[in-house]
Design brief:
about 240 residues, mainly alpha, Endonuclease III, domain 1, elongated, about 0% strand, 11 helices, binds iron/sulfur cluster, about 60% helix
Length: about 240
């Protein structure tokens, strides 16, 4: 894809949503870290439902450690893999206390050394909390980057590297959010909404969906139109007599 096209895509995404952000509810770096960690293999909506109950009770590393693994479980039961996530959550809180004075570290290696924290979670924290130009490639971004031709790649890491290298710097900070939201609501997996997509003319996907033909007129309005035609024909016949 030509650099000018990439720039045009991000310009349109920015025009449509000048200040994109995550849909995970949070009020502190620690809450964001917990929410992102819990969001693996599940939806933001189910994470938000869990953290709406958990955070009023425990939203600091010390409070999570005090709650303990069994205490955390009831709050995140609706989130997939809750047994593992409960252990990771308490382990992560303990590690933050032991190694970082209870603060979320601004360093990728330190973040990825925390239980349950991988490259994607670390990228989101570095981007959102510390303002680094990082792109966390999830399933939505992977799909959008490949379909559009923005940053083709066979693995999330290839796509991440291509996005970092090819995205104009003015868009890099927010690229992650624009692409994730575009993939979640427009360029969806099964049937992308190409007819109403704001980057349709710039996208290189060869199998864009088409607008469905207008529905056949049926029902009351069609019956009224048929009746009107009948009345007009009958009036014309009367005039001819
Ligand atoms: S035109 Fe279709 S395939 Fe391309 S980005 Fe838009 S929704 Fe996705």
């Amino acid at each position: 894809m030509h650099a000018a096209t990439r720039r045009a895509i991000f310009r349109r995404l920015r025009e449509a949503n000048p200040t994109p952000t995550t849909e995970l509810l949070h009020t502190s770096p620690f809450e964001l870290l917990v929410a992102v960690m819990l969001s693996a293999h599940t939806t933001d909506r189910s994470v938000n439902a869990a953290t709406r109950a958990l955070f009023p009770v425990a939203n600091t590393p010390a409070a999570i450690v005090a709650l303990g693994v069994e205490g955390v479980k009831p709050y995140i039961r609706a989130v997939g893999l809750y047994n593992t996530k409960s252990k990771n959550l308490v382990g992560l809180a303990q590690a933050l206390i032991d190694r970082h004075g209870g603060e979320v570290p601004a360093d990728r290696d330190a973040l990825e050394a925390l239980p349950g924290v991988g490259r994607k979670t670390a990228s989101i924290i570095l981007n959102m909390v510390f303002g680094h130009n990082e792109v966390a490639v999830d399933t939505h971004i992977f799909r959008v980057a490949n379909r559009t031709g923005l940053a083709p790649g066979r693995t999330p890491r290839e796509v991440e590297d291509a996005l970092i290298a090819g995205t104009p710097s003015e868009f890099l900070k927010d690229a992650h959010h624009w692409l994730i939201l575009h993939g979640r609501y427009v360029c969806i997996a099964r049937t992308p909404k190409c007819p109403t997509c704001i980057i349709r003319d710039l996208c290189e996907y060869r199998h864009k969906t088409q607008a469905s033909p207008p529905a056949k007129r049926t029902g009351v309005s069609a019956a009224i139109r048929r009746n009107g035609r009948r009345v007009r024909r009958a009036a014309a016949a009367r005039r001819r007599r």
